[in-house]
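W.,

You were right to be curious about this one. When I first looked at the sequence I had no strong expectations either way, so I just let the prediction run and decided to look at it fresh. Below is the sequence, 170 residues in total, followed by the output.
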Amino acid sequence: MRKIGQIFKILIPVIAVAVLVVFMIGAGKQKRAKEKFLAVADRVYEAWNTGNADLLDVYAPDCVFHAPPDPDLEGLEAYKQFFAAVLSAYPDFQLTMDEAIFEGDIGLTRWTWRGTHTGEFMGIPPTGKQVVVTGCTITQGVTGKIVEQWQYKDALGLMLQLGFKLVPAK
């Protein structure tokens, strides 16, 4: 019985150290993955703020972008066309990251964009109005190439700022 007690006396600290080492390795990997996510997000924000589509190389060629109520965009080329259309309609477009959350291979950014509507966009003629839009984007694949994103924005707020009016159904 004494021998078992002596074995456990040695074994318990060894197990505790092993668990601590595994936890620290996992925490280190998570920290590096979060840093990678923030670097990818910063690159996307820089692309939007400078108009440099070359910075969108962090997206996979077959990425999918969901932004209801708009139709899904499939592929990097479709995303680049959307990018160019937005910047054409809002040439002073500025995107700010308000918050970033990361877990595993999923990242979330809460953001605000500002711009002046001076060009046609999605069938809406230029209004000359300045707008401020808030939203968030959930990103999958942030430790490699971005493979999928889901964007949720205050589309109603945007329409109201552009001068649209709500008309009750009859």
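Here's what jumped out at me. The first strand starts at residue 59 and ends at 66. And, maybe more interesting for your project: The chain has one domain: 2-161.

Coffee later to discuss?

I.
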